[in-house]
Specification:
Helix content: 25-40%
Radius of gyration: 15 Å
Number of helices: 4
CATH superfamily: Gcn5-related N-acetyltransferase (GNAT)
Largest sheet: 7 strands, mixed
Order of helices and strands: EEHHEEEHEHE
Number of domains: 1
């Protein structure tokens, strides 16, 4: 499914981050840890990621890639979560390590994404999610996202 939230800067809420995490942007040294987190997060479905050697040049070479729109959440030197966004206000990947799920990290990440794009003048943020990923769909709906398109399974 493709989902969208309309951005109204006056109604955006600040993210509430779990204790002991810090937010930062992507740097070259983050490529392998980010790829490992994506592989780990998608290992049971919900998305997929190419081999590192293919993934890195595809992502960083994409015309919509901006390292300042790749939000990484760090805890004690390990990645707890990440949101990789395209400049078109599209969330390409969002993943939270299961040891951090249920602590508000995904919600905080998305609230941060919404605020970042609102500050850039975007009117909406979109993402794709598998309809069977009910916990993600519930989170997105709770944050105001609505289904705008049902996509055929490939």
């Amino acid at each position: 499914m493709r989902m969208r939230v309309e951005l109204d800067p006056s109604s955006l809420r600040d993210p509430v981050w779990p204790a002991q995490v810090s937010l930062r942007s992507f740097s070259a040294g983050d490529a392998e840890p980010l790829h490992r987190l994506l592989e780990h997060g998608y290992r049971r479905g919900g998305g997929s990621v190419e081999r590192f050697e293919t993934w890195l040049p595809e992502v960083t070479g994409d015309e919509e890639f901006d390292p300042s729109l790749c939000f990484l959440v760090d805890s004690g030197g390990e990645l707890a979560g990440a949101a990789l966004c395209w400049t078109s206000a599209f969330v390409k990947d969002i993943v939270v390590h299961e040891s951090w799920r249920g602590q508000g990290l995904g919600e905080a990440l998305l609230r941060h994404v919404f605020a970042a794009f609102a500050a850039r003048g975007a009117l909406a943020v979109e993402l794709k999610v598998e309809s069977t990923n009910s916990s993600a769909v519930r989170l997105y709906e709770r944050l105001g996202m609505r289904v705008i398109e049902r996509l055929a399974l490939s």
